[in-house]
Fold this sequence. Notes:
single chain, 52 helices, 41% helix
Amino acid sequence: QRVSCRRRFPYRAMRQFLPWLSAVLATFLAYGRWVSPGFVGEQAPVTVNKVAHPSASRPMLPWAASVQGTSWTANLACGFSFMAIPLACALVRRAPRAQGKCRSNPSAVACRVVSTPKPVTLGGETGAMVGGGASGGVTIEKRRVQPTAEQSRDGPVVKVVYVVLESQYQSSISSAVRALNKDDVGFSMECMGYLVEELRSEQTLECFKRDLAKANVLICSLVFVQEVAETLAEIVEKERDRLDACLVFPSMPEVMKLNKLGTFDLAKLAGSGPMGGFVDAVKNVKRTLAGSKPQASGGDFQQSMLKLVRTLPKMLKFLPGDQAKDARNFILSLQHWLGGTPENLEAMLLRVLGDYVPEVRECTGSTCIDVTAIMEPVVLPDMGIWHPLAGQQSVFSSVADYVEWTATQLLPHNPVGTVGMIVQKSHIATQDDGHYVALVQAMEKRGARVVVVYTGGLDFSKPIEEFFFGPDGKPIVDCVVNLTGFSLVGGPASQDAKKAKEILARLDRPYMCAVPLVFQSFDEWQHSELGLHPVQVALQVALPEIDGAIEPLIYAGRDQGSGRTIPMPDRIDALVSRAMKWCGLRNKVNADKKIALVLFQFPPDKGNVGTAAYLDVFGSIFTVMHQFQKEGYDIGQIPETVEDLIASLVDDPDQPMKMSDVNVEYRMSVDEYQELCPFAEDLEENWGKPPGNLNTDGRNLVVYGRRFGNLFIGVQPSFGYEGDPFRLLFAKSASPHHGFAAFYSYIEQVFQADVAIHFGTHGSLEFMPGKQVGLSGGCYPDRLINTLPNLYYYAANNPSEATIAKRRSYASTISYLTPPAENAGLYKGLQELKGLVESYQSLRENEARGPSIVASIVATARQCNLDKDIADLPSEEENFKDSSIEERDLVVGAVYRRLMEIESRTLPMGLHRIGVPPTALESIATLVSIAQIDRPDEGVVGLPALMAQSKGRDIEEVYRSADRGTLADVELLAQITEASRAAVTALVEQSTNAEGRVAEVNPILANLSSLFGNATPWKEALTKHGFEVDEGSLVPVFKYLENCLKLIVEDNELGSLMSALNGSYIMPGPGGDPIRNPDVLPTGKNMHALDPSGIPTKAAVDTAFVVVDRLLEQLRKETGTNEYPESIAFTLWGTDNIKTYGESLAQVLALVGARPAADSLGRVNRVEMIPLEELGRPRIDVVVTCSGVFRDLFISQMNLLDKGIKMAAELDEPLDQNFVRKHALEQAEELNLSLRQAATRVFSNAAGSYSANVGFAIENSTEGVDEAALQEQFLTRKSFAISSDSPGSGMVEQGALFRSSLSKVDVTFQNLDSTEISLTDVSHYFDSDPTKVVEGLRKDGKKPAAMIADTTSANAQVRTLSAQVRLDARTKLLNPKFYE
């Protein structure tokens, strides 16, 4: 019996015992001896082709042994290669065919089997395979299953085409079709399959169209990529009426509507259509089953749907007519599909073909399908604990049963740790679980207990709650590894991060999310510079990070031919080692833990040891050391003061500032280095033989730092290129030098650290060459950090680079607060100038004094060089006695506006110390900035807007008028600013203790004395400054500010570090600007970026159009010709776009006359062109250079930009109204390219490379600056383009096109989003500014206009580059308040 209860030849039953014989033989061949039950010990690994396979040394239970194959002949044919097959398989796999469950035998119990041999890797990344051929390199045509001439001789050939996300279904459906072709069923089958991502290729799409045109049945599953969904729907819609059946399982709505099974038609489910009665019946059944409406969140909804799917077939038996029968067949088909085994899919095909394919349905005779006799779906329980050695008990329903089984049958001794694993049910159901088996083997080899859980839905919080807690409610696991690669709740379709964080925080264990390759084959990933496919980065890295996931290691690949998932031994070994290290942190006592604390020093000299952005590094370390001592860590004698701590690392502070004066903790001989560092020889290409010239005493490699008991404070070596800057011109990639490799070899293998703490923003480790995301064992960040857990203190305002550290050095980040902000204020001549303005305000109508004061204002303004920032500022000789008051007001207003701009600008003061929250006074400026912004989603109207409303004005109107220099509105704006500060101060003061700190925030509702006739302190402050604002309208904004104050002064930074060192979960949170997004607070969070598919947001798009309009208006005004620029060069930054939710992205699209659009799931992955009539101006061409960090984080959005720009180029519009098309046509002819190729405009560094390094070259040049060489360096390093026509192919060098595009640029443009980091704070803005490069490339030699958009306040400004530099200089570099 199998799927149709038809009588079969009895030789199948006779073969049942043969795999047992194979298992015994395999065990003997692999081990040469029996291994006693429960034995866990080390054995020499068996090698095949000189590559060790970890499963070969796995302890084996002979009574449970089986092989990962089904045919004994196939097993014997492997000969001695049995040792390469994972041996830990289920007893239930002993039979090559399942004993199916038939309608005529309702008591039959189904058992799971393996129906086809599984491909298994033999050698990590380069090994051969057994059973599946080489990984990758197989054309999709190899998937085609066709009947032999003999099989197709006597009946019709039915063709099935399928499109799936999950490659594991390939093998099952192919096996099902082959089995049917071998049976005497009166027909034969052809089958061809496609993976979702493959349909992006035009060539593959044409193949799909040809196959579909001849198909009888189409099957689709998990088509959640919008672009593919739209294309698929368009193609299938043309063939849908002709198809006999179309089965679409959970996918995008446009694909789901293609479902067709007799009268079951999702497109006609609503209203009075033929399925209307069925819909009502389903609703009634649903209400009866669920008792309430299912929630909209991904996980809960999935669980409700699964419950419905399980129950409906039984209910539908009692509904009348063909409608119920067709609906029941659809749901049974879905159940068969979820069952996943070849037997289930065989039954599904028989059911569909027998009822809906005319050639099969109309068959007569003994070979016809008896649909009523087809087996019911056989599926695993919806949720359980799985273990490959559990035999008939392959799924456990309780923790107690599983623990008892492991204790008696598997691990009779106490495990060294317990690892919880989360896996996909579909891989178990389809028996595509070799990667899971390999991981279980490797974990158990280390002496760990493994608890593997799954669920049939997409809410994995449920099995965590059910199986990762013991009867006493305490967690039973030490670490959790999610092997699905998807978000914990919602999977690939949606995400409920709030629910995920709640259960993970309750569990309080490290949460790792390892990644199986889904959209790429093994070979494609291995040879890709990008690493992971962009879609997979978004779904399986970015979204899990929001849940709090860490360490996105690749551990399994896909065989392109069979679709089987292949374990990668070296990656599995790394994953297991890292998980066991986290377990060790949980189980070791603090006194025994060894901690390596890594400091940075850039540029490399003694004076820069211990530098980090905004952080008092040594003061923070001093605080951390005292906390270590309190918590029982062995750190020896702590220096008495911070200065003593510095002196202990820097021996003689009076000596010349050079690294040789930093304390040497260890000298590593060349022989020891070569023994400890397995990749030392690979570094010789760049750095020669060790020890080299860096971090060496000439004979040995030296490790700088000092030990304090079990704490090593080490100084990370420099990147290595500082002494040879022009080498960067030719180096698109690099490698660490020998000293760098020796440093990390010492930490892990000599000092034997349990964990590393990288202290502050930021070092060089995460920027070493390798894949962007999804590193291999050959990528240098992976090689260097190896198996060490990596904790990383990172500035909260820099989520982009923090995300790079998370993904490339496997860091668990802990955010720290940036220094408190203060208003820049005025000084010297500027302060004097403000006094003159105030005098004028009181004497403006005095005809004797007023004109003379205006003359003094003009003279002083010119002395302060404000004439460069104020258009049409009168000369000092001008006589104002003949001027009207209105004319004098305009002059004074323009000066006053510039003064206000300088005075009110916020800037960071001092350095932050870990464990020391800001004082109440230090919190005020931040809260004032937070209060400026309207937050519609929170129901909060900003304080300036409320005050403007109280005067009958709109705040945007006030901003615009003040920008024009209208004195009355400049004065009103100044009053609003002063009143805001006074009101916020009143809020803070009520919660301030005698020490000037916020001990406990007093609730705002306790102060609503206005309800009883008395005003609140902030209301009184506003009234005092002349603003009568209704008390009730103030409640939302001050309640919001009260909550922000709590978050600002909350101190989690030190506590999070201590929790992490104890193997606990670090609560995740967004990084960015706390003013724009107070959710960044409190700090001490495991910082993440954002879902890249969610940007640009609508608010960002609205702001972008405002900025673009202001930019173009100012450019037209400055040229005086009223003409638009034809091309603008853009620079995009990762952090800026995270903070602003994609404003820069939206600006690029706005210039070309496009707007981003979301799909039906809310993901921004489409572009809509704005008609010229609506746009009201020409489409401006753009040339976009992206930072390396932006490339790593937002490569999908780079594709979106490329798509929008190329759409603009292809529009048939007048060339004087479409400069994108104009230039693309010129370049197509000039460079012999197609129009789409010539319209490529989005560039960055090569994968694994960062920055133009122009700043490096200048800083380290010893022979002056060679401008031509610097420009060439910029062009060489930034000339790698992305193409939306081939997503996933990475960055391709396009030097000629890059130069040609830049040569047409009229304007260069960058954004500033935060006053914390501006043009004069870091070299990055200069390093990536193409202004000089464009000037050198333009045929007319004209220097382009350089513009900056400043969105640091609610009143966005567009300035020239020189004006922005002057503003920065006045507020920071020349400001005593800042530099003192």
